[in-house]
Every structure is written in structure tokens, then in C-alpha cells.
Task: structure prediction
Amino acid sequence: MAKTSFAAGRYSALALLRGALGGHRHWGRAWRAAEPGGPYDVIIIGGGGHGLATAYYLAQVHGVRRVAVLEKGYIGGGNTGRNTTIVRSNYRQPQLQRMLDHSLRLWHGLSDELNYNVMFSPRGALFLGHSDADMVKLAERGDALIAMNIDAELMTPDAVAKLVPLLDMRRDARWPIEGGLIQRRGGTARHDAVAWGFARAADNLGVDIIENCEVTGFLRDGDRVTGVTTTRGDISGGRTAICVAGNSGHVAGLAGLKLPIESHTLQAWVTEPVKPMIDTVVMSQSLHCYFSQSDKGGIVGGGDPDMFPSYAQRGAPIRLEESIAQCIALAPALSRLRMVRSWAGVTDMSFDGAPIIGEMPLAGLYLNGGWCYGGFKATPGSGWLYAHLLATGENHPIAAPFGLDRFASGRTVDEAGAGPMPQHR
Amino acid sequence: MLLIPCPHCGPRNQEEFAYERSVDSLVRLDDAPGVAMAALYARANLRGEDHEIWVHVQGCGQWLRLTRDRVTHAFRDVEAL
Ligand SMILES: Cc1cc2nc3c(=O)[nH]c(=O)nc-3n(C[C@H](O)[C@H](O)[C@H](O)COP(=O)(O)OP(=O)(O)OC[C@H]3O[C@@H](n4cnc5c(N)ncnc54)[C@H](O)[C@@H]3O)c2cc1C
Ligand SMILES: [Zn+2]
Result:
């Protein structure tokens, strides 16, 4: 990978040393506060990780540099800044495996590529099994992954106990642990750094990142979308790209379109920071809970979505209580920690649980959304694939199964087999 | 947390109810394929007031039609079905 040169200087150990000598007064802004301009080749609506990654890859891979990212608040303030940062590619459907492993490979070189420490930590992502049936399912998934050349390792209860000594391995535990399936290349990353790293690298290539700029409607020339109306004036562009996660339905509605997406709330929580106690991501898909330890020391966890439509960015305590009770039953030592914060994000629940990347029914308008509660792991891959679509007008083969037309033609990619019922995933 | 005013049981904790689907998603037996497709897969998903079908599963078991604001979570209307 060729090293990007930065107008404001590369980050390096030497720059840090020089900064220390000068009292750290020379550090400039990491990206410009751009004003709306244009016309642009591509207008990206939404300055989350996905939108910023799309802008970066448009400029870096395709040389498309007249790009604007319009963000209604501040970048990374949506689900990018609210998620629990689990990164993995061990899904069950081959279409999702291909897409997410492509993304995982980008994660592994991302800090170098962006010259920004995104603190990607491949510490292993472990699914627990609680019954013979669970273990059969995990073994079957592991085989399917290995057949796709994606790492998966079935673990005995002893191996699980050795990896995560805090787990309650007693036979009469509330949820006995019969083993697990681990993806060692999976792990976590620092959510804010991902947004900021992509923003800085995209800005450096000439992309305009425009914050406090809400898209309020679309400019039209007949059935063609030619730009957007915003709280900071009209902005015109060749291709307009929706990338607004939980607001996908609302923004599509501004163009008079409906999507196979419903917005639901997902919550998460974090404890006070403590010394290192868990160095793996622990998840139970039979129970619906997961936890890991952030680099700051807090135990970060979550569970089920709230299971009814909402744009409120706040959730009900009952869902928190469920996930916390499950985590404490799995790792009883967690009960001694104080919870310092809980929060919620609005997730774009698609009607087969898989993302949508493709053209919209209006010419010049594109969609990347429907990532449900699992799109952080896809941030680099989703941006890379969306950039391909926006630069070439054609979906990349990896993204081809995820077009909006799959619902009408019956080619849904339904990992949970739940049909068009987002509250049942 | 929602306090849902069930027309049969009075105000009850949200935990007793299950969200089923939005009213615009009802498929009728004689719907043409295009109409059925839209009902199954196209949602207004309004950032504001929408109409929803819920069930009081852990209470009277009846179906309800709620008119609910999806931002403030306020109920405007609850109707027995
Ligand atoms: C609590 C929680 C935990 C999660 N945990 C995980 C996890 O562990 N692993 C994982 O892979 N995924 C996880 N996810 C999912 C993941 O966070 C999302 O799928 C992902 O962040 C979506 O990225 P994004 O860039 O598309 O969205 P966002 O970061 O939400 O970006 C969308 C942006 O669009 C902006 N916007 C909206 N409307 C407009 C408008 N009209 N005009 C301009 N801008 C607009 C918003 O302000 C926002 O900044 C979690 C989500 C939540 C809520
Ligand atoms: Zn009732």
C-alpha cells in the first residue's frame, strides 16, 4: 500500500516527539471545516463511518475527488459513535461471509493505510454454546466458514475456560457452557477513531466534509435526482448517495420512496473502567448477549434490540436488564462492577437482516443501508463497495447479491430465517 | 418504558405486549402480487406518527391498533381490533 502524504503532516513517532518538544502546540485540525460548494461528482448523505469510508475510497481508489459528505450533526455522532465495536466475519450465509471477510481484510491494514490508529484489536471473537444443539450448530457454521477460507475454531469447554477464566463453567450454572466457536482474526476497534481516521484521509484527498448540514429534500429533473436541499442551501451533484443508517426510511421518504426497512432501537452499556479482566469478545447467540473490555477498561455489553419501531435514540430498561442479567450469569465477577452509562442508537432493520447496497428507483440516487445492528464491522468494506458502485455505476460482484431488487425476486439473504419481521431477529 | 393503555385491561407495562407490524403491511388474500409485495416489503417507516398493530400477549390476548409517535413515544389513539 502506497503511503499517503498529508498536507498537514503525517502522524508518526517523530512528529509526536517534535510535538512534545514544542509543548504540543503545532497540531493542526485533522480535517477542514468545509463550506458547501459544488457541483460535486458525488454527494454522500450521512457522515458516519460508512459515509466517510465511501468518500475516502472514492477519492483513493477511483480518483473521484469532487465529493461532499453532508452530516446533519457532527461526524460519527450516529451509530458509529454508539456501537459496541465488534468486528468479525463469521456469518453463516456465503454472500455475507464474502462481504464481511473482504471488510475484515481491510480492517487488518486500516491503521497503516489511513495513517491513523483505529486501535483495531484482533483479540478473538468467541461464540458460546450452551447445549449439544448449540454445539452442532456452531460446528456446522465453523465447517461452512473453513470451506470459504475464513478462520473458525471449535473449542472444548476446557479451552474456553482457559481463554476466559471468568466464565462460570460449573455444570449447574444458569447457562452451562458446552464449548464455543472462535474467530481469532475478529475483535474490536475504536469507533470514534474510525470516523476521524477516514475523515482526515478523505479530507486530505480533497473531499468536503460538511457538518451541521441536514438534507431536507432532493433536487429533481423529472425522474432524475440532481442534488439535495439542505439546512445550508441547495447542493447539486451527479450521483446522490444515501448512507444514513437509522434514518434511511426518513430520507428515502423525502424522495417519496419506501424501503424494506424499519427503524428500531438498540441499546448498550458500559461499566466503570477496571484492570484487564477479559481479553476476548464473548458472545452468546442463543442467549442474545455479549461483552468485551474496552481499551479504557470499561466492560462494554449489549443484547437484544427493543423490538418495536422507534427513532427516539433511547430504550427501555427491561432490555438492558435482560442483557446485563445474562452477562452476569455467564461471568459472575461482572456483578461487582458499577454501570456508568447506557445509551441507544436507531438501527435500520432490513426485512431480511442483510444490508442493501444498490440503485434506487430514481436515476442518480443510490442507497447503502439496512445494516441492522451489525454494520460497524463492515465500515471499510461497505465504503469500499459503495465507492465502487458510485464510481462505476455497477455493483461490485461482492455487493451484487445485496441490491434492492432482491426482495421482489425472492433472493433475500436471510441469516435468521425470520422473514420480513425485524422484531424477530 | 411504555405504559400502553389496553382498551380491555387499562394501562399496562410494555413488557406484556408484542409489536406485530405496521398497519400498512396487511396483506389481503385477494391482493394482486404487486400490492402484496409492497405490503410485505415497503414501509413508510415514518419519523413521526404511524399506525401499528400490537398484541396484548401476556394480558387479554387481544389485538390492538395503536397510533403512536415514533420519536416522542406518545400514544394518540388505541383501538381494539
Ligand atoms: C448500541 C449499538 C451497538 C452496536 N454494536 C455493533 C457491533 O458490536 N458490531 C457491529 O458490527 N455493529 C454494531 N452496531 C451497528 C453499527 O453501529 C451500525 O450498523 C453502523 O455504525 C452504521 O454505520 P453508518 O455510518 O451507516 O451509520 P451512522 O454512524 O449512524 O451514520 C449515519 C449518519 O447519517 C446522519 N444523517 C441522518 N439523517 C441525515 C440527513 N437527513 N442529512 C444529513 N445527515 C444525516 C446521522 O446524523 C449519522 O451521523 C451497533 C449499533 C448500536 C446502535
Ligand atoms: Zn389487554
Observations:
- Chain A is about 30% helix and 25% strand.
- The longest helix of chain A spans residues 94-114.
- Chain A has two domains: 33-117+190-262+352-409, 125-186+263-346.
- The mean pLDDT of chain A is 96.
